[in-house]
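DM between two lab members

TW: hey, do you still have the DUF4352 domain-containing protein entry open?
JB: yeah, one sec
JB: this one, 138 aa:
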Amino acid sequence: MKSKTVRTASAVPVGNGTAKVNNQITVRITSIGHRFVTAKLPGQRSGDSVVLGLRIDNQAAQPLDLNAAVVTLTDSAGDPATAITTDPATTFPNELAPGESATATYVFIVPKNRRDPVDIDVTVNADQQVVVFHGDVG
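TW: and the structure you got?
JB:
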């Protein structure tokens, strides 16, 4: 199997606008919140969390496959944050029509003392570059 090089866009400051996946697809953080979440599924844990609202805009002429969209958060110590998939988390739809937008909510367990700075990586799909947001979510 041939390996594929993952392209990563230059980091965009958290709270400072839109990250371009390419000239037709953009991602932005629409909200940042905090709450204590209780895990409800095996393998997840409860704790203080960062709740991120994200939006993807598709201005391409064809539908955008979001089936494998991935969002990760790396805390200020360089450790990957644990994602929680219970309330209020939501995911993107499997496909985004041309000219449409989609929103999702991602919840990550991040101790209060590890929120400045963080990296939030958004992979729309395997055919697109990864966009990165960097900054304080405290």
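TW: got it. Residues 83 and 108 are 4 Å apart (CA to CA). The chain has no helices and eleven strands.
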